[in-house]
Design brief:
Elements (H helix, E strand, L loop, with lengths): L1 E2 L19 E4 L9 H16 L6 E4 L11 H14 L22 H13 L3 E4 L3 H13 L15 H9 L5 E4 L6 E5 L3 E5 L7 E4 L7 H11 L4 E5 L6 H13 L8 E5 L2 E2 L15 H7 L3 H9 L14 H7 L10 E2 L2 H14 L2 H7 L18 H12 L8 H9 L7 H7 L4 H13 L6 H14 L4 H13 L7 H8 L1 H16 L1
Helix pairs in contact: 1-10, 6-7, 9-11, 13-14, 13-19, 16-17, 16-20, 17-18, 17-19
Subcellular location: Cytoplasm
Subunit structure: Monomer.
Protein name: Glutamate--tRNA ligase
């Protein structure tokens, strides 16, 4: 258990000394779909490296795939695709290579076996023959006595006779790291000075009985061999940090590590009910945001605010502005709550910041089969180019473009019956007939002329523009809300608009 001094301690510097270029890493496991908490971790590491690029900083991308039962090649490919979509380039890693290859742990097993053997030979680790039943019984007894329930060191000092007896029983040992009997203190880049006492950090397993290395070994060994200087990771891994600090000391003694990296533990991302956002939460999946049409720029802008900010009064900024200002010591250690509505609002701002040509191209996936409900040959490029500037100001996510422009490419509008009932009040037929007459006589090269026509129709029936245009909008687009009406009518064209008003009149008469 960690304890902190009564007053906050100064946070550690982001440099490790003159002449040591910063090196950070992002090391996900290829299990399931990438989630937003993972993306936030990648973002902070990548931004850190880019910010210190002038000092020779490098960003290492490593795949931790030692869990054969859960890891998959599909998830591995999704990770690479996600990194590309987000715009994260890496200096070393899969598809790039580098001096510390390979960058997939499943291809580094001989390295881990060699390091485990050296730790055993030097007395930093030992073989533990305790059965799971024995461990559970002793832990339960410790809890009942009000003592820490971690491993009690039973196999720390076995005699040769005891070892032989265990072997005769057919027991297969795991390998445990021998934690030093001393308090471990380190300065966290985010949280300041943290202290862990020996009774709260017991010896821990680093190799399974079948010889497979555990995360507790492979992660710090790879960080050591890849000369990682700064480890920025989630708060959920904080309890394992004193173990790694002790292991680094042993690895340094053995000449495997050059130094202990600086650690910075990023705050939890909280979901609904102030619970930690888990991979199982629907709103955690990165694929969901891609499918809905979030921009990488918008999503990254929002995720950066989960623990960091550019300034107190600026929520919208580019990734370049973030990189220029990012300092891990500015990260807030308090949990950050994921707010989907704010995420959408920030994404909407980034959509509006796009160049119109860029916007029209980014919408393409939602304008064609199988997403779009209209026939491919019904899509009209000229109409799309004309309506795009008006659509750009209305979207929160790109996927909304389909419903906003479907009236242009479908043979008839898709009526929402609730909208129809809401808009078509008593007298709407008379209003529509007048509006048709005025629109037929209007100048169709000017949306202002079309507005004047509907305004005049409304005045003829004692209605203001807002109430007068509602039946026209539903008749033509099928919805009560949408893109600017008169610009939409201009793009749709006179013939189609009048035909749809006629169809709405027939529907009302029926």
């Amino acid at each position: 258990m960690a304890s902190a001094p009564g007053s906050p301690s100064p946070k550690s510097s982001t440099t490790l000394g003159q002449g040591v270029p910063p090196r950070v890493r992002f090391c996900p496991s290829p299990t399931g779909n990438p989630h937003v908490g993972l993306v936030r971790t990648a973002l902070f590491n990548w931004a850190f490296a880019k910010h210190h690029q002038g000092s020779g900083a490098q960003f290492v991308f490593r795949i931790e795939d030692t869990d054969a039962a859960r890891d998959s090649e599909e998830s591995y490919n999704q990770l690479l695709d996600a990194m590309r979509w987000l715009g994260f380039d890496w200096d070393e890693g899969p598809e790039v290579g580098g001096p510390h290859a390979p960058y997939r742990q499943s291809q580094r097993m001989d390295i881990y076996a060699d390091v485990a053997g050296k730790l055993l030979d030097a007395g930093h680790a030992y073989r533990c023959y305790c059965s799971q039943e024995e461990l559970d019984a002793r832990r339960e007894a410790a809890r009942a006595a009000g003592k820490p329930s971690g491993y009690d060191g039973h196999c720390r000092e076995l005699t040769d006779a005891q070892v032989e007896e265990y072997k005769a029983q057919g027991r297969e040992p795991i390998v445990r790291f021998r934690m030093p009997d001393e308090t471990i203190t380190f300065t966290d880049l985010v949280r300041g000075e943290l202290t862990f006492t020996p009774e709260n950090v017991p010896d821990y397993g680093i190799v399974r009985a079948n010889g497979a290395p555990l995360y507790t070994l492979v992660n710090p060994v790879d960080d050591a061999l890849m000369e990682i200087t700064h480890v920025l990771r989630g708060e959920d891994l904080l309890s394992s940090t004193p173990r790694q600090v002790a292991l680094y000391k042993a690895l340094t003694e053995l000449g495997i590590a050059k130094r202990t990296p600086a650690f910075g533990h990023l705050p939890y991302v909280m979901g609904e009910g102030n619970k930690k956002l888990s991979k199982r939460d629907p709103q955690a999946s990165l694929n969901l945001y891609r499918e809905r049409g979030f921009l990488p720029e918008g999503l990254l802008n929002y995720l950066s605010l989960l623990g960091w900010s550019l300034s107190a009064d600026q929520d919208i900024f580019t990734i370049e502005e973030m990189v220029a200002a990012f300092d891990v010591s500015d990260v807030n250690p308090n949990p950050a709550r994921f707010d989907l509505k704010k995420c959408e609002a920030i994404n909407a701002d980034h959509i509006r910041l796009l160049d119109v040509k860029d916007f029209t191209e980014r919408c393409r996936p939602w304008l064609k089969a199988p997403v779009a409900p209209w026939a491919p040959e019904a899509f009209d490029e000229a109409k799309w180019q004309a309506i795009a500037p008006h659509a750009q100001t209305r979207l929160k996510v790109l996927s909304e473009i389909t419903d906003n422009v479907d009236f242009l490419f479908l043979p008839e509008p898709v009526f929402d019956e609730t909208s129809w009932t809401k808009a078509m009040k008593e007298g709407s037929d008379a209003l529509l007939r007048t509006a048709r007459e005025k629109l037929d006589a209007a100048d169709w090269t000017s949306p202002e002329s079309l507005k004047e026509a509907v305004l005049a129709a409304g005045e003829a029936h004692g209605l203001k523009l807002g109430k007068a245009q509602a039946p026209v909008r539903v008749a033509v687009t099928g919805r009560t809300v949408g893109l600017p009406l008169f610009e939409s009518l201009e793009v749709l064209g006179k013939e189609t608009t009048l035909a749809r008003i006629d169809a709405a009149l027939a529907k009302l008469a029926a």
